[in-house]
Structures are given as structure tokens and as C-alpha cells.
From TrEMBL:
Residues 2-37 form the CASAMP N-terminal domain. The gene is CAMSAP1. InterPro entries: CAMSAP, CAMSAP_N. One of its GO terms (biological process) is cytoplasmic microtubule organization. This is Calmodulin regulated spectrin associated protein 1. Coiled coil: none annotated. Pfam families: CH_CAMSAP2_N. GO terms for molecular function: calmodulin binding; microtubule minus-end binding. GO terms for cellular component: microtubule minus-end. It comes from Chinchilla lanigera (Long-tailed chinchilla).
Amino acid sequence: MESDDTPVTDTDLGYAPIKMSAHMAMVDALMMAYTVEMISIEKVVAS
């Protein structure tokens, strides 16, 4: 989702020059998915 709560579409990612807000939303979602996958609550508590 972009900052205005609209979903990012493949069309948004295909603009030239790039639509920075769509790319930032996609990168943010990918980083969050990776973080959720790699870090468990047990690891956080143990740290």
C-alpha cells in the first residue's frame, strides 16, 4: 500500500521514470516480510 492507502500495482512499478512512492512501498513491504520471517519473538526476548 502506498502512503495514501492505495494498492501498488504492476503498472505503478512500470513507469519510466520510476514512480518513487510505489517503489518505496514495495521495498518497505519486502523488508517487513523478511523481518517477520527471520526474527521471532523468542529471539527478541533472548536479546
